[in-house]
Amino acid sequence: MARYGLVVDLTKCVGCGSCTVACQAQWELEPEERWLRLEIQEEGVYPSASQRFTTVQCMHCDDAPCVRVCPTAANYKRRDGLVLMHEGRCIGCKYCVVACPYQARVFNEERGTPGKCRLCDVRIQKGVQPACVLSCPAGARYFGDLDDPTSEVSRLIVLKKARQLRPDLRTGPNIYYVR
Amino acid sequence: MSWGLPIAVYLFLAGAGAGAFLCAIGAEVYSRRTFRPLVHSGTLISGPLVALGMPFLIYDLGMGQREPWRIFFLFFGNPGSIMSWGAWIISAFVTVALTLAFLELDFDETWPWLEHRRPHHPKLYRRLTLLKELMTPIHHIIEPYRGRLLVAGTILALATTIYTGLLIGVLNSVPLWNSAILPVLFMDSALSTGLAASVVYAVVQPIEERRLLAHHFFSLNQIHALMIVVEVLFIFSWLLLAANSSTAAGQSIHLLMFGDLALFFWIGIAFFGILDPMLIYIYEVVLGKPLMAYGMIVSDGSVLVGGFILRYLALAAAVPVMLF
């Protein structure tokens, strides 16, 4: 079975935010509702200071805290690696929102349930790349099967030494970053 | 963070209710005759207090007002979730505690508050008397099981107080919460606020009850002072360990002690929760005799304010783990 994930080459990222907007357009989100957000850190001291961009979204963790804490089992891990939600089972308790160390869940007051990156499940089902991957003007995002050693993402992880964000939290994130 | 005031109220009421129950049990085991007013008020208020927290929880649920039947998923969806444990524990506790509160009412005697209503509201009086007569046989059926209900209630009350701390303590997303001290701190605070709630309720009762209790203010307040000393030690260790554990936890502590929440922390917890009741209790020890009944409302009411602000600040000071 597949284990879908992303590799984000941050050395190519210019911080334009296309991925955020493409995601919002794909899922018809409100302007302040970001399933994929851009984090900016400042590094160094003047005059050699710089900014570093990191895109943060649901990490589709192997041992996802949101799945573990969800009292109604509305959150679940699909066999292809995606962490998804049964909207009809969710009671809106926000336990998953506080449990996610990546703050990847955005609560929607209007609907009464939280939303999150779904790795564009409806697109990949048709063989189309996720919206954030296709929209990246720098070509910094790669989607693929992490279990397949010949896939582009697996090769990138090895070649460019891509790493997860905070793997020490032991959630087994499936988004890798090249720095 | 996503959890705010309604959840703080819910955690506080659950803790105070379970704490009141445990204090009533402690007093009953020690001597039911001596501490009769405390046992009486603790048993009467514990179930209603926890039950009162439920609407706050449901109000906070995104789907609570839209599709409330989904709450049933909470019980059987995921047995590994602490929130599901809480749903079982609290519903069982409320059932047991309300049954015991029902047993605490004496159906064989006339109720003065009911008799007072007889001349002014004859219709209401008739209805309530009928209700009482209908309830009397049920009371007699359940009464033999009181001992077993007390044992079950004690276990469930202990579980409730620990659960309120475990609920947020198991999350490694917020370093301030992810601490072994939190569940025991919440438990100690639950006992303290539970005792305070029982005392406040007993003090506002008819005069003879108050006099009975006043007799034992002194020993009660010493026990309560001990609870607060333990609470101070727990809060101090919690904050000191957190301040030295990680960047995010350090930021939480900064927020609490010097930042936006400092006013709540120093006035709410340090003054109302600790200093004010402690000064009153110490004053009594120096004086060698208990203050009058209404002094209890000041000291114990202040404990309740402090206990609530502790829950609120624990939620409000949550800083998520650093990602970079």
CATH superfamily of chain B: Formate dehydrogenase/DMSO reductase domain
Taken from the alpha-carbon principal axes, the silhouette of chain A is globular
Quantity of strands of chain B, as a count: 0
> What characteristic shape of chain B results from the CA principal axes?
globular
Describe this structure in words.
The complex is a heterodimer of chains A (179) and B (324). Chain A is of the alpha+beta class and 179 residues long. Chain A has a single domain (4-178), classed as Alpha-Beta Plaits. Helices cover 21% and strands 24% of the residues of chain A. Chain A contains 6 helices and 10 strands. Chain A has helices at 18-27, 65-69, 95-99, 121-125, 131-135, 152-159; strands spanning 4-9, 37-43, 50-56, 75-77, 83-85, 106-108, 113-115, 141-145, 163-164, 175-178. A 4-stranded mixed sheet of chain A has the order 8-1-10-9. In chain A, strands 2-3 form a two-stranded antiparallel ribbon. The longest helix of chain A is centred in the first third of the chain and has 10 residues, at 18-27. Chain A starts with a strand and ends with a strand. The relative contact order of chain A is 0.26. Chain B has 324 residues and is an all-alpha fold. Chain B has one domain (5-316): Formate dehydrogenase/DMSO reductase fold, CATH 1.20.1630.10. In chain B, 77% of the residues lie in helices and 0% in strands. Chain B has 13 helices and no strands. Chain B has helices at 5-31, 36-60, 73-76, 82-104, 112-116, 122-142, 146-169, 181-203, 207-214, 217-243, 247-257, 262-287, 293-316. In chain B, helix 1 (5-31) packs across helix 8 (181-203), helix 2 runs antiparallel to helix 4 and helix 10 (217-243) crosses helix 11 (247-257). The longest helix of chain B has 27 residues, at 5-31. Chain A binds chain B through residues 39, 41, 54, 56, 65, 68-74, 88-95, 97-103, 107-109, 111-114, 165-166, 169, and chain B through 1-3, 60-64, 66, 70-71, 73-74, 77-78, 80-84, 87, 168, 170-174, 318, 320-321, 323-324.
